[in-house]
Write a structure and sequence with these properties.
Layout (H helix, E strand, L loop, with lengths): L3 E4 L1 H13 L1 H16 L5 E2 L7 E6 L2 E8 L4 E9 H4 L2
Parallel strand pairs: 1-5
Antiparallel strand pairs: 2-3, 3-4, 4-5
Helix pairs in contact: 1-2
């Protein structure tokens, strides 16, 4: 059973802007979020400051999320270009 999706407020703002500015990338992100919701453990766990979070690549962009196993939810936190995602 897929996990439910929860979105950080800044993530939602970024999605809205992305939908307007780059509809193709927005569609790729939507597809990746569906894949993440189906199998979140498949994606790489992060370390250091981002410990407890995971990431998935979409071209040169990265979506960062955390997994709530008790609530069966994926919390989408960030969507950034790879060069800026880990700062």
């Amino acid at each position: 059973m897929p996990y439910s999706a929860v979105y950080d407020l800044l993530f939602l703002k970024r999605l809205k802007k992305l939908k307007k500015d780059d509809p193709q990338l927005f569609l790729r992100l939507q597809k990746k979020m569906e894949e993440v919701a189906a199998t979140p453990q498949h994606y790489k766990p992060l370390s250091n400051v981002l410990k407890g979070k995971r990431r998935a690549h979409i071209g040169s962009f990265v979506v960062i999320f955390s997994v709530d196993e008790t609530g069966k939810a994926i919390i989408f936190l960030e969507f950034e270009h790879h060069d800026h995602a880990y700062r």
